[in-house]
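User: Reviewer 2 asked us to show a designed sequence for the structure in our supplementary figure. I'm pasting the structure tokens here. Could you produce the per-position amino acids so we can include them in the response letter?
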């Protein structure tokens, strides 16, 4: 009887664990069911289909409302619908956005786009870079429909990005960046140590699916 009771209460405890509970130190930001804790600004939108966040239209931003992030690693698992699609993971957004362009100019976009040259852009706009600010150290992004794992480490004012285990970006606020070439590129200047994060929906022709969004504090 005691053994059955222990099993019963263990099952209850597991059932009570929230979707944002920690697993091996990682805290889930997307519960796999709906967009609880998230808010969308700008054109287009996002839905949850088959346990995945799916982008629609744009340019807009789905951001996590419950906290700012710093001194942590964000992990995003995503795939493109087509061979190549455009999206991005936004970090260091100073305040909750009310429209889609403030995060572009006041935060950083970690780009998702394996072939930016198709739109007349260059390698400063490739997957894993800080959009238009950093040159990639590697180009490990996989085309659709393969899954990719992006990890973004925020260590003070330093940002490190890996894609599929390869380092693409290692940048600290204040290091030199190229001049602004296009009007849609972000303003240059410092970004905050802590900020909101979000997922971009880019356009009608760009569809990206997100399976996992989670974070883990840095060990100091």
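Assistant: Here is a per-position design you can include in the supplement:
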């Amino acid at each position: 009887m005691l053994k059955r009771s222990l099993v019963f209460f263990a099952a209850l405890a597991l059932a009570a664990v929230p979707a944002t509970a920690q697993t091996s130190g990682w805290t889930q930001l997307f519960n796999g069911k709906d967009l609880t804790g998230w808010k969308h600004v700008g054109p287009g939108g996002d839905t949850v289909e088959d346990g995945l966040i799916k982008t629609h239209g744009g340019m807009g931003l789905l951001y996590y409302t419950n906290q700012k992030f710093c001194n942590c690693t964000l992990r995003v698992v995503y795939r493109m619908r087509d061979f190549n699609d455009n999206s991005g993971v936004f970090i260091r957004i100073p305040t909750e956005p009310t429209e889609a362009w403030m995060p572009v100019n006041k935060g950083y976009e970690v780009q998702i786009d394996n072939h930016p040259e198709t739109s007349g852009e260059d390698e400063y706009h490739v997957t894993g870079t800080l959009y238009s600010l950093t040159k990639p150290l590697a180009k490990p992004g996989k085309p659709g429909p393969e899954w990719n794992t992006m990890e973004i480490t925020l260590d003070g004012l330093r940002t490190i990005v890996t894609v599929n285990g390869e380092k693409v970006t290692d940048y600290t606020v204040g290091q030199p960046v190229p001049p602004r070439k296009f009007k849609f590129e972000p303003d240059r200047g410092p970004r905050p140590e802590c900020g909101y994060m979000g997922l971009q929906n880019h356009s009608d022709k760009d569809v990206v699916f997100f399976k996992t969004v989670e974070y883990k504090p840095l060990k100091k």
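For the response letter, you might also mention the following. Helices lie at 2-16, 101-106. Residues 2-16 form the longest helix (15 residues).
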